[in-house]
């Protein structure tokens, strides 16, 4: 009699692992996003991963043994304007070493500018009065002190503003009919280049 011995050696059967692709909008604080990967593995328990902590260019990602991952940005990324984005892909692995990826995209949003306003008062004269000034803006998404040029027709006069925030109001009358204590007022709305509104209020005071 003789025997035939057959040995079947186990091999690593690659797991089937999910991946993740997420996109989030930047805010005034460093954003955080999370999720859970899954794995199916004939050799190992399903949904089992190698815990890891990865430092990226735009933030850090951690993943635990159950596939739960958390991404935390390392900046508020307020400098990103609408249409701008930063992307990063992290590579993680199931417990048997099968790689997968978590791709995080941070999209820019419009952060409202801080814009000055103006309130001016002028006395009427024998001619239509003119007054002017300059608004300022501070904007993390756009160049500071940049405005949407505009020409506005009001009830008592016209106002123009240029791209640098310099505005000029020209009355459409001498307003000689105004007596001491009388006045006419008008408020014009203008915007910085990102659309943040501001106002210019002009008062024309009567004189004797």
What's this model, at a glance?
The protein is mainly β. The protein has strands at 16-17, 20-25, 32-36, 39-40, 52-55, 59-63, 68-73, 85-93, 99-107, 114-115, 118-123, 130-134, 137-138, 150-153, 157-161, 166-171, 183-191, 197-205.
In words, what does this structure look like?
With 208 residues, the chain is an all-beta fold. The protein has no helices and 18 strands. The strands form 6 sheets. The chain has a 4-stranded antiparallel sheet with strand order 3-7-6-5, with no helix packed on it. The protein has a 4-stranded antiparallel sheet with strand order 12-16-15-14, with no helix packed on it. A hairpin with a 4-residue loop joins β6 (59-63) and β7 (68-73). The radius of gyration is 32 Å and the shape is rod-shaped.
């Amino acid at each position: 009699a003789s025997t035939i011995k057959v040995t079947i050696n186990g091999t690593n059967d690659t797991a089937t692992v999910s991946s993740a692709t997420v996109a989030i909008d930047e805010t005034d604080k460093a954003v955080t996003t999370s999720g859970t990967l899954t794995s199916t593995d004939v050799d190992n328990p399903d949904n089992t991963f190698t815990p890891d902590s990865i430092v990226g260019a735009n933030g850090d990602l951690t993943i635990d043994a159950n596939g739960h991952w958390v991404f935390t940005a390392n900046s508020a990324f307020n400098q990103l304007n609408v249409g701008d984005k930063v992307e990063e892909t992290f590579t993680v692995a199931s417990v048997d070493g099968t790689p997968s990826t978590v791709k995080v995209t941070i999209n820019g949003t419009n952060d409202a500018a801080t814009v000055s306003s103006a309130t001016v008062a002028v006395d009427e004269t024998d001619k239509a009065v003119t007054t002017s000034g300059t608004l300022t803006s501070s904007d993390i998404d756009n160049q500071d002190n940049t405005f949407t040029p505009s020409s506005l027709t009001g009830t008592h006069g016209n106002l123009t503003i240029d791209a640098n925030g310099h505005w000029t109001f020209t009355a459409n009358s001498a307003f000689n009919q105004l007596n001491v204590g009388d006045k006419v007022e008008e408020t014009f709305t203008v915007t910085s280049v990102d659309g943040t509104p501001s106002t210019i209020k002009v008062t024309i005071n009567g004189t004797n």
